[in-house]
Design brief:
The complex is a heterodimer of chains A (235) and B (460). By secondary structure, chain A is mainly beta. Helix content of chain A is 10%, strand content 26%. Classes of the chains: A mainly beta (235), B alpha/beta (460). The structure holds iron/sulfur cluster.
Chain lengths: 235, 460
């Protein structure tokens, strides 16, 4: 069942207090021509809100979202006006997901593309297995963030916990605050011109106003790229 | 000093002492010396090589006076198989209960993936992707394609989720329950690297835990997300490597799986540590029974289907798995062997060519090879090498796999008819006995000639 269509603004409202999540997602997977935006009212921490979007649609979630909000997003813009549970924007391919509050564990896990903006803090394992997506976190990130991150960029305006960038591949992490501890094979590197440009651009895209020069660069030392007997503890 | 010895010194005075130690035997000595020389564990392909209680240790009780057989060559015996009837609105319908197990593009060449799709489609069964994503070749050639969602999420894309026929969430695999995948640099070709978003030529270690969920309660939520993404259409399988099967299957069912895939320790791998392959996990025979017990305990045998894999080779193996309670089997290594793995020759334009020298250069010989991890497969099956992969012509591979699957299904229906069943899914535990006490205990069927099921019933 479709949500109520407001003819003048061509925006659609789904009230999850009265409507089924399944119908919201089905609507988002259907023909969205002529639909300007979709508003989700009373999300009340529901899981899997606006997952599998495959169109340049705008979705506003007015309240807290549970697990996997905007999971596998492809091309959509999803704004959560509240906090997001684990795995927000997991496996995003493209588009933009924004969380105005805090995000729980695994934010942006395995994202191949797109931009995830978290205005507050992000929990454990932010950007785990990142595959090309970009993540900007206004606050801190929890431990094991950027674990096995393969490609893409993370910009952390606050501080990072333990094991940052453990077993990281080609992804790059920028941190403005302190890093409790780097993970295996992650190392601090000097900020180059390109890094300053990248951080500046991502901060601007996220609407955050720090100086790129305040950030540190963390990338792979590449000692785990090939098997070797001297890295036995790490294997 | 120079007196002529009374005994010819070239003749041993006593027979050579060649008493081999059972514990510190030649294999153990070789293992220690290899470890001492390299400081690194050994990695290889395929599955457990040690002798294990297996389907071979079970026998069927064909129909006789107490049961009535079906006419072997005339009377119909259905092998139709449906997977994913619990929640999915579009269950998988197969003509045979024998599917092709998940094997990655990366481990296998694109030619092989295409061949598997063609063979499966002709036989009315399914193929499965693997770590590294879906190739266009396999999607095109496979009528029914199961798309794996693995811990690494390499090449996991929503477009492929949408064009898959079912999703299989891989928790683990029988060859290495608790371990992630491994692909050595030789096989990380430009295309493989691109699909996995990794640098070319690195020794690639896949994650062993999923990035966005931990534990069975999260899994339930993850499954719901995938259902929402696919509008509740596609069956969701959960695959576990066989360890604590009774509990794991129950948890998978509670998490909302349509189908549970249980992979025993004989299941293959493209590359894993030998200590893992041989010492972690339980045999398929034990796993099947524990899985069935779990489904029976939850009273969901008519809703949740069980797919069993790990060392299934023959039609008799399939029949035994079904009789124990599986709905279908998945075969990996058997399929590779059908394609020519461990064969002395490969076929090029209809002509057999010898591969012996190539096995030799890997330090092995046909019949003994487990060198998939090297990427130098002498018969072009598990390689990414542009020259070697030509050794497997997709059409030849497809025909061989089709013949293999056909043979298995004929054997399966033959055994089913002999047991008086007009549907292979009617095979039951009561049709089986065991040859050894171990097999009787694991499979939960009586030792042949007795009514004794060790651990379950009293003496005969
Ligand atoms: S012949 Fe090829 S597929 Fe078979 S074990 Fe050797 S390398 Fe692996």
């Amino acid at each position: 069942m479709d949500g109520a269509v407001n003819a003048s603004s061509r925006s659609v409202v789904f009230d999850l207090a009265r409507q089924e999540l399944r119908d919201l997602n089905k609507f988002l997977h259907g023909d969205l021509r002529g639909v300007g935006s979709v508003t989700v009212e009373n999300p009340d921490g529901a899981n899997s809100i606006a997952v599998g979007i495959n169109a340049p649609v705008m979705v506003e979630v007015n309240g807290h979202a549970g697990y996997y909000v905007a999971g596998m997003n492809q091309g959509g813009t999803v704004v959560v006006h509240g906090n997001a549970g684990p795995g927000c924007a997991e496996n995003m391919m493209s588009g933009r997901v924004e969380v105005t509050g805090f995000a729980s564990g695994g934010a942006g896990a395995s994202a191949h593309g797109g931009l995830l903006v978290i205005r507050g803090d992000a929990g454990l394992r932010c950007g785990i297995s990142l595959k090309g997506g970009d993540i900007v976190v206004g606050g801190d990130v929890g431990s094991f963030s950027g674990f096995m991150a393969q490609a893409g960029r993370m910009v952390v305006c606050g501080s990072a916990g333990e094991g940052l960038g453990d077993s990281i591949y080609e992804a790059v992490i920028y941190v403005r605050g302190t890093v409790t501890a780097l993970g295996s094979d992650a190392r601090l590197e000097p900020m180059g011109e390109d890094d300053l440009r990248v951080v500046g651009k991502l901060l601007a895209d996220a609407g955050m106003s720090h100086l790129p020069s305040e950030f540190k660069r963390i990338a792979s030392a590449k000692t785990l790229y090939h098997w070797n007997a001297d890295a036995n503890l790490t294997y | 000093m120079a007196t002529k010895p009374e005994i010819d010194p070239t003749e041993p005075r006593e027979p050579l002492n060649l008493e081999e130690s059972a514990g510190l035997n030649r294999q153990a000595i070789h293992y220690i010396q290899r470890a001492a020389a390299t400081g690194l564990y050994e990695i290889r392909g395929l599955g457990a090589k040690r002798a294990l209680p297996h389907f071979d240790d079970l026998l069927f009780l064909g129909a006789s006076l107490s049961r009535y057989p079906l006419e072997g060559y005339r009377e119909k015996c259905s092998s139709k198989t449906v997977l994913g009837t619990r929640f999915a609105t579009k269950p998988i319908e197969l003509d045979i209960p024998i599917t092709i197990a998940g094997m990655s593009f990366g481990a296998l060449s694109a030619h092989v993936k295409e061949a598997l799709g063609r063979a499966a489609t002709e036989m009315g069964t399914s193929t499965t992707t693997g770590d590294g994503g879906m190739t266009s070749e396999e999607r095109k050639s496979s009528k029914t394609l199961v798309y794996q969602c693995l811990p690494s999420r390499y090449g996991f894309r929503p477009d492929d989720v949408r064009r898959a026929d079912a999703i299989e969430i891989v928790i683990g695999q029988g060859a290495k329950p608790g371990g992630g995948g491994m692909l050595l640099g030789q096989k990380v070709s430009p295309r493989v690297a691109k699909m996995r978003t990794l640098p070319e030529g690195i020794d690639q270690r896949s994650a062993c835990r999923h990035p966005d969920w931990t534990g069975p309660d999260d899994l339930a939520i993850k499954i719901k997300e995938l259902r929402e993404i696919t509008d509740w259409e596609k069956p969701i399988y959960v695959k576990v490597g066989a360890t604590r099967v009774f509990h794991d299957v129950k948890l998978a069912v509670h998490a909302g799986a349509d189908v549970v895939v249980v992979d025993g320790m004989q299941g293959g791998t493209a590359a894993t540590q030998v200590a893992f392959i041989e010492h972690v996990g339980i045999p398929t025979l034990a796993a099947v029974r524990q899985a069935v017990d779990a489904l029976e305990d939850l009273n969901v045998t008519d809703q949740v289907q069980l797919v069993v894999s790990g060392g299934v080779r023959t039609g008799a193996d399939v029949a035994k798995a079904l009789a124990l309670g599986a709905t279908a089997v998945a075969i990996g290594q058997g399929i590779l062997v059908a394609l020519g793995c461990n064969s002395g020759t490969y076929l090029q334009k209809g002509e057999h060519r010898s591969a012996i020298a190539d096995y030799r250069s890997l330090g092995t010989a046909p019949g003994f090879c487990h060198h998939c991890h090297t990427g130098r497969c002498p018969v072009g099956v598990t390689t990414q090498d542009a020259v070697l992969e030509q050794r497997l012509e997709p059409a030849v591979g497809a025909e061989r796999v089709r013949n293999y699957l056909k043979t298995l299904n004929m054997e399966l229906t033959m055994i089913a008819r002999a047991c008086g069943k007009h549907n292979v899914h009617h095979l039951e535990r009561e049709d089986l006995v065991a040859l050894s006490i171990e097999a009787a205990a694991m499979a939960g069927v009586p030792l042949a000639g007795t009514s004794w099921i060790p651990g379950r019933s009293g003496g005969a």
